[in-house]
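Late entry, zinc ion complex.
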Amino acid sequence: MVDRLKEDLIETGSFGRTPLKRIERYEQLDPQKGVTRPAGTEENRKIRDYAVGRMKETGLSVKIDKVGNIFGRKEGSKTNKGSVMSGSHLDSVINGGMFDGSLGVFGAIEAVRRMDDESFDNERPLEVVVFTAEEGSAFSPILLGSSVLVDKLSVDEALNRKNTRGQTLEEVLENMGYKGDFEGSLDDVEYMVETHIEQGPVLYREKIPIGIVENISGVAWVMATILGEENHAGTTPMRMRKDALVAASDIISFVNKRANEMVKELGASTVGTVGKLNVFPNGTNIVPGKVEMGIDIRDVVQKNMEGLKNETLKAMKDIEKKYGVDISTELPPMHIPVKLSDEVVNMIDNSARQVGVMTKRMNSGAGHDSQNMAEKVKTGMIFVPSVNGISHAPLEWTNWEDIENGVKVLTQTLKNLSRIAKR
Ligand SMILES: [Zn+2]
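Prediction complete; structure with ligand written out below:
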């Protein structure tokens, strides 16, 4: 079965778990104790070292670029250009799960090992990639390593980013031994395939082993501050209040109601969430004077995403008047929706059919390095089911047979893409 890969995932799944514990089955998970390996930590170094060890064992030639992205390369038999890349990230969120990112990296290494076992002749070069700091749990922005690869962020900008402890990326890369000098470039990369856990409930609920990602949602954030008037909850008559939290509740209801309507009326895939709320002074007997809120809006259709964002901003104007509060907003840079390559999507579909695994085409609501890669390289993503749709949490899990299906499809896809003349 899947023993080599299983061992890689179980062993590295103990890194960053306190106490260090090998988890082999869902029942062994502790809802409080996930893995914590943000970029640049000792635990992140450990899993990087482990991956590099496996790459070298597999005969890959390993190079590290200036922002710590790792490339493990196997030359092609017919050309040294137009390589087929596959991988993901090894950093994690705080208290996350053991497959997020790691599956994409160790799955890609396993795919190369299986090709070697069969003496498969890869005409194009194969490259396993590990992207630095995908999660944003230590450094912002998210998708940092792949952003440098696609020239969205310069090497210097990236190296000067600071983590929550005030260390620069350059410092932590040096400490870990991952400040390389390889000039990573995508000019000679033809394809990218990332295997990842779905991080949502669709495949698990529908009992479909493989999702083929067609689009990755865009994300628009609105950070709002509502200023009302802080006052005594007992002595301030209802008609004389400027309650910032009541105004905030109208905004929360609006975002939720409109997103639901857009789904129903337009058949859109819009999601709108108010996930962050700080109430000041946050006392039971005080009319709230200030509320900070974070609104997250996503869709694979940019027009819908921007539509809900603009409608929300407009609703805020009405809410300001209604409650006599002041609302100021900040709009962080938007991530636009990304469409993945039809050629790779179809190739994953055909490959799954070749190995007899059922698939479903779907979109990704979560961000991935692949959305950056898709700007320069023909890119596709293979999703495997997340038990109960849980992710970024200690109970994140994917069943071993689903991991096996994912790697089977990945291996076949990489084989097919590595041929120069496609069948
Ligand atoms: Zn991930």
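The chain has twelve helices and 15 strands. Will revisit in the morning.
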